[in-house]
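Re: the 161-residue chain
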Amino acid sequence: MRVSCAVFLALCFASRALPAQAATSNAALEIEALNKSLADATRRMDNGAALALWADDGVSLLPSTKPIEGKKAIGDFLNTVTAAYPGARMESFTMQCHGLEISGNWASEWCTEHQIVNLAADKPPFDGWGKMLLVLHRSAGGWRITREMWNQALPGGGTAP
């Protein structure tokens, strides 16, 4: 039986696409695990575990602040916030990520988050909603956050018109 040149070429290209699709699928699962680790660390208010998910040269971009550049500066920021609210505990934290785009060792996604933090007995709880854009990079240590941009979201995770 004779196979046409076009069919042969199509089969060759398809066989090359399968490993790339598998790699993208594996990367998506690895990034889903990173997101789960970030959510778990946030729920526990575990700054060390959250910081472990960052690249050494990571940058966090928050509203009304200078860029927080480097893992050490990000850790210092997290510890400063925690120290400002002694006794605070996370009542609930949810995070949903969307629009994952993977290109080789780089990926981006956007997420919505909602957190309720009990601050102290004499203060009402913090009930906040946010939107994040994450840029991720895969190196020998796995996927890490290289850039984070966060801003406030409307209750329910919606955005202002």
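The first strand starts at residue 54 and ends at 61.
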